[in-house]
């Protein structure tokens, strides 16, 4: 693909104001491709054309002007760099002139070239009045009229001047790719089949680059697809970059699985969603009553779906401006932060308003978890790092990779998102928990609250169960928030210990500064249990044989034995087998001393040495191996790396 300047131009204007004929005069290509369009002399669907102007590639997306085909106009206006607003000199501003201009403003197209057409039918004095009326319309919508060009396709007037204006805009970089946005995104506005090649889709590239044989994601399905071929203005290309009209031949994708409303994108950036938080630039009430919930038709990129808009505040008039809302969408769609959209009434007969996406993936507003206006305001007008911090805050315990963070916060790439998150980590605003493959970005405020909650919960738990030594480390991840996924809980649980929100001691998790307080009765029972284990020497009693055990205190016995292990008074060797800590120290000295004297020991030798039985010695020998005091070599034991020095 050459580095020639590129410009995507979208036509706009009332029906029969000469949009298609103007494109034909500029490019030599008739954008009306359907037989029905040619028979009726009226544009019905999107049409496309390309030309080169002074070495610049200029693409045209021709849209229908009839009010019944506004949905097609909106799809075509997605991704254009500049609008070519056509106004017939003999008609001046008409209903669809106003509606198209309004739609352009909602879609963020803030520059247009105005072509006054059919100038062979009017004089210049009349044209001056038309220009004045068009200027008033555009000024009210904050759209800049780059140039007014008076044209006639009958006489050729103004065609060369219009070409020069468009060429100048291309060279000025009006269609240049937004800085840093290298990941590819293509909303699809047309799909068809070519014999021998399969499915081909077309659209206006939003940003990024793509190459032949590259793998992309097809949304909203989210499936991986391969690019078989690329074509732009009927020429094959190895790669494509920046704003342009592009045709993509997809390998192995049936035509029935793709169409207008689908999108192609670099893997990992987009997410299908049925709920979005939005900012409403303007919306008119669709009926007689002012409602906080409105059933509407959402147009976003090339998609058109039913949706319900819930406004943050009750409407005070018949037109709402500058208010936050939430869209509940009937079908999954994909979007990115800041993306523009159009709202029309449920029947699709009237354009009502538009706005911008603030959260492409949002949670339902509930009474217990209401909308957060401060966070939405940050997403609306905050700098990139602040938006990223707000995205992390709103995610709470939900994992989000760098690519999704970039899309949700309006950052141009995963590298930019990673850099911004590192900066926020350095400033203590957020924390990144877990390894590279399972990272969890968490706002510091959530961790502080979790730490306080966990400490209180641990203290209450141990106060209610004073014989418990704490929470087993294996059970500790289950204490993490239910909203946190299973794969992130171990890392989050470990982070709390590393940051002294909880303490790990002798296999148990306890709150900082924890000191168990037992009743006098439990303390006496605890000491009696320890006494029996010490007396049992190298043939310690089973729990069922403890003299201190009664049917009433069986549970207490188990809890106190666990407490003895946690306090280092007992050593757990195997299931149902504990040794008193003093006896364990004596045992290890005897075994290691004998090995140093003889060279190696068998299980039988250890049994004789300890005057014990095989019932105890076999698990004992295995445990000595496991903790590194001894090392098994065949049927013998030698000194292990952790053997004590006698």
Structure description:
- Helix content is 32%, strand content 29%.
- It starts with 5 loop residues before the first strand and ends in a 7-residue tail after the last strand.
- It has six domains: 166 residues, P-loop containing nucleotide triphosphate hydrolases (Rossmann fold, 3-Layer(aba) Sandwich), CATH 3.40.50.300; 81 residues, Translation factors (Elongation Factor Tu (Ef-tu), domain 3); 104 residues, Elongation Factor Tu (Ef-tu), domain 3 (Beta Barrel); 54 residues, no CATH class; 65 residues, Arc Repressor Mutant, subunit A, CATH 1.10.10; 128 residues, Arc Repressor Mutant, subunit A (Orthogonal Bundle), CATH 1.10.10.10.
- Strands 2-3-1-4-5-6 form a six-stranded mixed β-sheet, sandwiched between helices. Strands 7-8-14-11-10-15 form a six-stranded antiparallel beta barrel. A six-stranded antiparallel barrel has the order 16-19-18-17-20-21.
- By secondary structure, the protein is of the alpha+beta class.
- The protein is elongated.
- Helix 13 crosses helix 14 and helix 16 packs across helix 17.
Which keywords apply here?
646 residues, Rossmann fold, Elongation Factor Tu (Ef-tu), domain 3, six-stranded mixed sheet, 17 helices
What is the straight-line distance between the termini? 78 Å
What proportion of the residues is helical, as a percent range? 25-40%
Could you give me the name of the CATH homologous superfamily of the largest domain? P-loop containing nucleotide triphosphate hydrolases
Q: Return the average pLDDT rounded to an integer.
A: 87
Cα shape? elongated
Uncertain regions: pLDDT < 50 for 5+ in a row?
37-42
Which structural class should the secondary elements be placed in?
alpha+beta
Gyration radius from CA atoms, angstroms: 37 Å
CATH architecture of the largest domain: 3-Layer(aba) Sandwich
Spatially, the strands of the biggest sheet line up as: 2-3-1-4-5-6
Oligomerization status of the protein chains? single chain
- CATH topology name of the largest domain: Rossmann fold
Which sheet architecture does the biggest sheet show? 6 strands, mixed
CATH class of the largest domain: Alpha Beta
Proportion of residues in extended strands:
25-35%
**How many beta-strand elements?**
30
